[in-house]
Amino acid sequence: MRLHLLRHGETDVNAAGRLQGSTDSILTPLGRRQARDLGVASIAWKPAAIYSSPLSRARDVADQIGDATGVSVKIEPRITEMEMGALEGVTIQQMRDDWPDLYQGWRRDASSVTMPNGESLGDVQLRAMAAIEEFDVRHDSDDTVIAVTHNFTIRCIVAAVLDLPLANINHMDLSLGSRTTITTGRRGRRLNGYNAVDHLTPANRVGY
To answer: Which residues are catalytic?
Structure first.
């Protein structure tokens, strides 16, 4: 199986520099353009299946891809974004000011932190990898599968594939509208590409 993990496009919340987690934010005009670029690119990828996080910013992208390819979209709750709990909607500066111990713990070792009334990175990795395991069973080795998901979710999946400590994911950048590709075959899972944005028009490439 060839699995393309797609990060959704820009939203009103991340454009404002705020943590969004499970907040059901909406795509900005730039985010909608990124979604259209992903829809066009997906025609060449010829997906056998499309999965999406239940959050609308991911579903909007998945629907663009479904319309372009004629493949129906299946909602997969386990690939939703990290639940940020009390920190949803706050800025990094507010996190630094109002939750200083949490902020320092996140900077030092993100894997040691559980968000107040939310999740840890370990929680995200466990549920996301359970979904990936099912995709592997459900699909043939030569199938291409698309999963439209989120920043921390993708980074947690990549860490599992590479057997990296979750403490290291703060060293991984992941652009909006990017494509990360993992294959599963006789040698197990392999990371074939990370944070690719070549499918986006140059004006629609944004890093945060």
So the answer is: 8, 81
